[in-house]
Records
---
Amino acid sequence: MAKIGLGVSVYQAACERISYVFDCFPRIYVSFSGGKDSSAMLHLVMEEARKRNRTVGVLFVDLEGQYKLTIDHIQECLALYAEHIEPYWVALPIALRNAVSVFEPKWMCFDPERQVDWIRTPPPNAITDETRFSFFRRGMEFEEFVPEFGDWYSQGQLCACFVGIRADESLNRYRTVNGSGWKSSFEGKPWTTWMSRTLYNVYPIYDWKVDDVWTYHGKYGKCHNLLYDRMHQAGLTLSQMRICQPYGDDQRRGLWLFHLIEPETWARVVARVNGANGGALYVQESGNMTGYRSISKPEGHTWESFAGMLLESLPPSTRDHYQDKIATFVHWWQDRGYGRGIPDEVDPKQESAREAPSWRRICKALLRNDYWCKGLSFTQTKSPYYEKYKAVMKKRRLKWGIY
Amino acid sequence: MFATLRLESKADHLQYFDIPAGVSRDGHLTPPIRLRTGLPRPWCARITGADPTYGLAREFLKPNKGYLDANRNGSSGIYLYFNLAPGIYEVQEMLAWNLTRRYFLRSEAGQCQEISLQEMDIWLKSV
């Protein structure tokens, strides 16, 4: 789709959007990660807040295994705007995805039962009391916490959550911003998305390019996360510079960098997060090692038998989880023209477009340690319902006769 | 500053009924049809002035429909969320699945306040 210029610079446009949000929304908070985009956005929002003498909430979810430089940067930003900020530095036991281990597919940051192993202790101003938020329950997922926090913060009033994503970053993010036709926005502004109840997400820098972000930091002399300087020194390209917790499904490819940039933190990460060291060693590989690109099966095996062998090699709880997903996948396709079972392999183009089922697709999901089986078109199960889901699946598997 | 108004869409599952696809007597395929039942539903309209036909000139607002608190069949817990810019509004809320109440609201500085018909008349004369 062709881009249509607004006749103003992206900086001006972002300022106008922020000003509009301050005009319309009684409650405002910024979702802050310490990255370059959210830092630029925080500076812009706080300039407007200072101008209007308004207080803005700042949510930072501390994921424990983070770079020290990021933590330093966040503290610097919070101190810089202290008089106009209502900080929410959340250091609670939240379940996080660990894509580098099949023994511990999820891990809990700031787990009170493993306090001696913590990578770092939260700062004194962090929220560590589990009763602070009425909606919080131990082990809830990060993806559940963030919208729940928004609802809680809104207090029934119209509330805007500033999110520093850019359409330029990925197709997914482009879709999030340009969701015309399926999403509901505030007063028809495409750079907003209705989330739930009275909460809207706002993307004021959605049209910025990565160059614009750094130009802004440089031109206006704003503080930035020094981790990016280290990454630049390590030879990373702009698109490779990611700061989020590095054990996720997509983020794990940057795990090798951790020990180069912050060796002192890395030692504690290895002790704390199952599989971190192995992940850092092998995550750059493709093929059967990580399930990236093309995979191959051992001599004398079919993809189906190979999937069985891979399942046998997994710990029982993880195996059972994958068996639930595979049983659902196979059964779904059985009802849709594959009554005699799914084929071993089909045209790779059809497989990658998720148009046809095959055991090779299943093997790929297993080798990739795709825990939620997104490659098989599944979505993440909400954590409070996971136990119920397991019980339902147990009955269904018996009924279907699969596993 | 905008205010927000939440209205429950009671018995939302009874708002429509579906006639499935089938074959007519003369052998033609008939497509599935969704029909409105005509039961009352909640709404909110901004009053923009007087209207010679209807008394009040109104702009009906499009709400966001939230299912987070809904029960399984959708008979309760479905809420409509309206964003109200500063101004005067007429609202129809549902007290029960077939019982409604209409009233006027003033939205100001992010807050809503119910106003009487007399207050509304005074405002209408002033515009």
---
Amino acid sequence: MSDVAPKELRIVGFLCNWCSYGGADTAGVSRFKQPTDLRVIRVPCSGRVDPLFIVKALLNGADGVLVSGCHPRDCHYSDGNFYARRRLEMLKRLLPFLGIDDRRFHYTWISASEGQRWQKTVTDFTTQVHKLGPLHTGKEAQP
Amino acid sequence: MADTGFIPKEKWGAFIEGLAAKSQVWVPCLEGDIVIFRPYSKDRTLCFERPANNPPKGVIFPQSDKLFSFAFKKDEDNPQKVMVEIEEKLEFPKTTIIGSRPCDAKGFLIYDRPYTETDMPDPYYKGRREQTTIVTMSCQAPSAGCFCTGVGGGPADTEGSDVLVTELEKGYFIEALTEKGKEIFQQSAIEAGNSYEAEARKRQEAVRSMVRDPFGSGGKPEVSKECFESDEFWQDALAKCVSCGACTYLCPTCYCFNITDEKSFEKGERFRSWDGCMYNHFTLEASGHNPRPTKFQRFKNRVGHKFVFYPEKYNGVIACCGCGRCIRYCPMSVDISEIVSNLQKPTGSASDGK
Amino acid sequence: MSLDKLKQIVTDVLKDVDVVIGYKQGFDPLHATPHFITSSDQVDQIIWSPLCVQNLTTYLPSLKKKVGVVVKGCDSRTIVQFMQEELIDRSKVVVIGIPCNGVVSVRKVLEKVKHQPIEEVKFGGDGTVTVKTPSGEIKMALSEVAPDKCATCIYPTPVVYDHLTDEPIASTKDPQNVFKDVEEFEKKSLDERKGYWEKEFDRCIRCYACRNACPMCVCQDSCIAETREPHWVSQKSTLTEKMMFHMIHALHLAGRCVECGECERVCPMGIPVNKLKKKINSDMKALFGYEPGVKPDEKPPMFTFNVEEKNIEEHKL
């Protein structure tokens, strides 16, 4: 974790290209201030997000994962986010079973015009993850 | 048998601790109802009553072994020139395996031929092998499926071990088989062994008579070429195999490996890891062609390697130690001893029924 | 049920199919093994007893011929799940159903007899089994050595069949208890759960026995846990990679696992692999009211969606 600034945690964000990425862009254009822990990965649709992306991120060093897509009924591809909603809900319930706090994973629906809402979501989620602390203590055993 | 000794039951724990002070000791540990080889530490529960679920082959031939790490560095003045820095560590710690069985120990001898008896011995394998002392426990009873006597071994076989330990009523009779084994005798817990030798031999003989020999060929089963080449035989025999690969990973004599580079951006590591001939992609080529796409062809190759090709190359030595793990842990109870036994007859069928 | 009746049905079915898959005696008195019958002289080797633990339906998606298969209650759910996902041609499968009172767990029997060599196994009709070893005979109740799945089985009679060898059995188990083990586990703290899984998965050797024995895992030859492109899991044998494989396995079975228990039975290192899948199944039940492998005309919940989801609420930070 040495390439992250000392007080930052690693938070990965999967944003759908049409709504949420646009919303994040709106927040940027409006010069809203928000924590810099979150690193964005753009996907065409929240339905592209395989629950395994989130698992792989959390197992391999991420401290928190955020997924954001279009509002249900407003998906650019009609029904991608309906599938996403089912899969992500299933994953959210599974993570605590493994011993990973489910507050480290959050999924939400943010549209392209909701820059203010994006800024608030990122700030609140980053605060939440900071409260939980880093997930990995770096004690991975040698193969 | 020059050096023999005896360790009373009360001093067995101290004996192991004494060895652990001088080398990294691997022992079979009980976790729930599973026995698995682990590095020794005081809080573990040791279990020598039955063979471990996994053989100790991972001690000398780790499941994933870092060969070296590498980093790519671009030349500052000429970015087209890229240098590779390689970092390799070829030192291995002094190691002792306590509690392997004669079948497990024989497995290392099978490895030695292809890995070290060549003009370019494998330095990683050779380095670990030279640093490892193998203290074998002879068996008190056969395990489900095992058949060491059928392939020229035995429950108190000395091949491949440095020290052989036989459990008696009041303690353990130990005998040094090699120079490395004699070093173990520097331990203070060991008393004189001569008076116990007769009891030990009697026990060993008694167990030997309990082991089954499915081939009845004096430890050297021979496979009939005609039967071996019959596709129908293999299709019949392997219909129930699910091609999982558990048999290859649990086999003390299986030594196939894969080499992969695990890298991210400009640095990475080259790993050697276990491979299994039962996997579909074992022979998958870069072009997409696969010479052995079906499971029965792969199993035929597995039996062929152990009972035909390896003996042909190495003076009749069979690359199977008869431990029976492949039979015990096979999800569908595929029985290699039954298949080879049927292969012996010139006109046998795959499932003759028992 | 008389063994003769089963043999008679198999002989009849054999006339219409290329192969019938049943059970025969395995390599020792405690093991049965799958028996592929292509001619009537092989029918005599068939056995039926609580030793018959394997799920024989795992062969169906890859066999292109007309097949007859012997199934217990749990195995029959796999066939229904195959029908939901169109993985088999139902007209090419003849299902011989056997109502089942429970099987044995070989691991549990061996623990009870302290891993001594098994000489003989006898099943008393009274729900007991007697095992003979060199040090004598030990009698035990079948319920003591049954796998965990039998203790909560609510489908003892196959849910789909073309022939039934005996009168249907009604379940004596409370459906509320099916996920009791999941509920018990969730009483532990987060740290305890993490420690538990780290301890269990550390033993994994990634032999893929669980994946290959699973009837619903049909992608075995192109499983993403082993592909290099895309590179999901590396060859390093670290805890992270092992957990990643098990998450891939469990998540790809979300809403499809019929809880046949094969994964846990075949693991050579005794890892409770089935637990993760049971947790996902309990969520499927709670969220979508769905139980895998029961109604052929249902669709697995991960394959479909509702515009309004009754049980999914938006999460607030």
---
Amino acid sequence: MAADGRDPRAPIDPAIGSPGREGLAGTAPASFRAPSFERDQITIAPDFAPADAQPAWRQDFPIDWPQDLYVERRDFLKFLVLTSAAFTAGQAWIAIQNWNRRRSGRPPVLRVAAIDAVPIGGSLVFRYPDEHEPCLLVRLTAGDFVAFNQKCTHLSCAVIPRPEEGSFFCPCHEGRFDLRTGVPIAGPPKRPLTRIVLERRGAEIFAVGVEERTT
Amino acid sequence: MTGSVRRPFSRDQRTTIVNGMLVFVLIVIVLQLWLLTATMHAWLGGDESIVWPGLTVSAGALALTVGLLVYLRRLDRNRTRRDDV
């Protein structure tokens, strides 16, 4: 008995050890009245040393290591299932975007420029098929025009035409695309630039379609 | 007439089962990641033929992993019932 007459072994909080409050990790009883683990139940400590060689705190609060191992593996498995769900959600997102793309139908016909407005070796920026898609019209020879989406297929930086080198250059990661075909020739990009289908009507150039390619 | 008693798995057995599940689910997830990147690459390149098969296979893989998790929960529930007795 303590000087004030209270039993020092009495529970501090009567709620401790009650159902639902058995301990945070469930590996050690929180109740002072509950039977504690035996020292031998420190089965295999993380440092593989025997129970007698363990620090005092670990001897006082032993952990059931096999149970701990089981619980952590089980929780990791739950996390992996969540990751699997995230990948499936990504696939579903692609399917929804695909449905949206199909619903939008054929791209419009857009007048890009008069032929004389672009000098040989020169280029012109236009937006096609909507305001969010910057494209480049390049005049290779007197009668030869090509147009590509300006977004690099690596991380969507704007590519710069370099007719003197025969390529489009992406300054972000030094990617290069062939000026005539849009095929990647250097750097991280794997896919060609999206090609804009052109049509010559009299003295004017029109964009009439979009051609996405993997090779 | 012969009868058999199905005893719940011990903790060591369940740990072995969880380890096996982890290896299997890890392989499935790596395949799912590859499938997602391949589908994205193809779709951005204008190839739409792979979109729905990719979603179907990925959903099947998810169903497989969820099924394994449900099985594991059932094992734990059986063990809890036994402890209650």
---
Amino acid sequence: MRIIATGTCVSLEESGQVFTLLEKPALPDYSNITKRPYFSVYYSEGETVWERLSCSMAKFAELCRDDPYLGCYALLLHRLYPLLLSDNRAKNLAAYGAGTDCMAYRVIQDFMTFLHTGSALTALALSPFSFTAVSPGSCSALLYRLDTCPAPAAVCDAINKVKPGGLFLLYTIKETVSEELVCLCTKAKKDSFGPCTLYTLTVDEAVMDFARENGSEAFVLARASEITRRAEDLGGLIQAMLAGTALPDDAWFIAVTILQQTEELLLSLYDYLENDELPVFANALKEAVLNYHTGINRQSDLTSYQKDLAETAEIFFTAVETEF
Amino acid sequence: MRKYKMCMIPAYPLENVQLLKDRVLLPYVCYRLFGESFSIVTQSTGDYPYLSCLEGTDLIPLPEDRPHMEAAVSYVSAHSQDIDLLFLFGARGEYMELARTYKSLRPDGVIYLKLDTNIDWANAYPLHDKNFSVFLEDCDIISCETRRLQSFLYKKWLRPVEYIPNGVWYPLYPEAGDVQLADKENMILTVGRLGTAQKNSMMLLYAYALAFPSLKEPWELVMAGSVTPEFQAEYDRFCKEFPPLAPHIHLTGHISDKQTLYQYYKRARIFALTSRAEGSPNVFSEAAIFGCTVITTGVDAAPDMTDNGRVGRISPDPEDVKGFSKELLSLCQDTGYLARNFHEIRSYMRAYFDYERLAGRLRSLVGLQALKRRTS
């Protein structure tokens, strides 16, 4: 894939196919616009916006020529261009998925600084925790490399950082997106060339609703409610076991199955748990139930198993109550 | 209840002595409880006289014209249909290809990995290696030998890790059932490779020396096991330095006859473990079923071995000779506790370290795996 910049047009070219990214505007009618950098700089002496843009595209081609995402970077700048030139306010952009030393991000930053010295593109480190450092609704645009972190919850968390009306730019070199994100991508403008695809979403009410419903906060709340529901089911069963109530044979197996599921749910929330021993407590309770049941089957003295079951149940349920 | 075709493959060629250790015993007891067949697949290291204790076990020798694990992978490729439950021992890189091969051929099969690890090993697993992560995913059930490690591994691996300690298979120890409180003598016993850095044997000598003047009754110290030349020299020097103690300290040398070793367990009131690092030592379980009260340093298994100090004593710091000596002295003086604990520790072992019981739990866990697959 190549980037071709002529005096009037910037395009992507591969195997004879051409994708026009930007065309130099004809002399604009600026009768009602006087202050925008697009025009003031455009007609000033020295480098024009167009020249700088062409230069940025050339830098992509030079610095990222072996990068499979080269086409994505060009598409990104193509979609960012109108936003960056839309008014004279400094823009706060964030980018996730290509690491902090991505050369393409530096090129975009350079172009943004050229337009407005106060604008910034912050490349976030490759950790889901990076998003916690960004205030919700604070970014004019967020660039997200889907292939690095395709989890829908992470995508939605990233969307939540974009201002209403801002842009969320999702790029990938994979052919398909996950089923959960298809619905989101249908709301987007799709630019595709060669292996590179860019989905550009304007963050409106519908997108924000989707992000809220599928973000990690909603995920955590849903999981937490599943855990408490399971804990309630278990509570009754364990009480019956401890009271020596006659239980159907499969009651033990059901209890253990619920505990195994609870353990897995807790592990899926592990990053958010205040008490990081909770999954181990669930495992210990599972073990105690199995020991007690084995004790009954082997007609052993149940005293120590019963004591264990009571103690581990107490520890587990107290911890669940405190946590959720 | 479903019966499984079971197979154990060691990461390295199996030795005879290992047949009666956790790596084979736990799978074997599982076989007795819910197995259709049980095979051990390994390159031979010589004769296997202990195999006679494991009735029904099929030892399948691997060809020796190529490396052990390469031969094991070929075996699994050809015989995956004969294996419903594959037992692996140790999270070793050698197993990665084997586990992948088995899972690709038998996605319905179950791999149980017994970790055989300690905290130092657990910290050194190459979690950054994608192949290693895949290997862990291929293992349906993973267990470690101590609760402390279990808690640690949950945090590191974010996956369920079961606690299955190194236990005992009682039929191997008929003498343990006959032991009486009256058989016990004022004997402190330790068993292991004396003089290795891990076993920290000198500490026991010095702790005993510190306690000795305050002992109201005479206590003998018996140190059983092979002796390094360095330790032998230290021991000789120690005896010259403390002549009154010398007659009370006995080095038995390596004991190959189990019955002889069991006689020591039978007589000892106290079993001392001074290791610097240890996962879950087999000697602990052996000593405990003979009613020895355990005093140990803070090895990973210390809280489990002593039920958090209820049926034994923990002196946490393996370099704190004074601390260990103080605990040892207090234990030697507390005859009432030692007498009560003779029964307590044996009940505790029966309840939580009996392989038949542990295998019962493993059977449920294997059953849960099958259910999980059906529902997913």
